[in-house]
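dumping this here so i dont lose it
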């Protein structure tokens, strides 16, 4: 998946003149396997303008909220869209690191993604989240604790 193309489209969502066209392109691209992990990579690019990163993380949050869970359907009906399991595995592998290293404006949206992912995947498909959080909390660099505690909170919040 081409990161430059995603960045260009996300910039278009900010411009009122290009917004509708950019949103239509994103709607088509979301169906491509590899798009969701590429979107997360774009969101985590430190050299990118913050408005573009925010547009990307909000789109990612909305995708996770709507399409993370395996879609239920009756036989004979077309299969509704959901994020492919290959993409979900890649996101599960990277989301804790992303929350830990993201700036605050992005971290908040990634935490919502984490909550949705835990809700549908923990513990069955995603047992490694506890280990990743634990590794960051044992790190002497206290700047990493905020993001890891936020992930831990999302995990615990699902069971309160």
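and the seq i came up w/
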């Amino acid at each position: 998946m081409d990161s430059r193309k995603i960045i260009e489209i996300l910039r278009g969502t900010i411009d009122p003149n290009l917004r509708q066209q950019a949103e239509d392109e994103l709607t088509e691209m979301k169906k491509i396997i590899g798009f969701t992990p590429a979107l997360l990579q774009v969101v985590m690019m430190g050299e990118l303008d913050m408005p573009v990163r925010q547009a990307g993380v909000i789109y990612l949050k909305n995708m996770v909220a709507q399409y993370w869970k395996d879609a239920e359907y009756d036989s004979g009906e077309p299969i509704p869209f959901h994020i492919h399991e290959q993409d979900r595995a890649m996101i599960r592998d990277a989301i804790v690191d992303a929350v830990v290293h993201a700036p605050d404006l992005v971290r908040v949206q990634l935490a919502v993604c984490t909550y949705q992912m835990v809700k549908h995947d923990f513990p069955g498909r995603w047992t490694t989240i506890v280990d990743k959080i634990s590794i960051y909390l044992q790190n002497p660099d206290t700047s990493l604790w905020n993001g890891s505690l936020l992930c831990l909170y999302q995990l615990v919040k699902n069971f309160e």
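The chain is about 70% helix and 0% strand.
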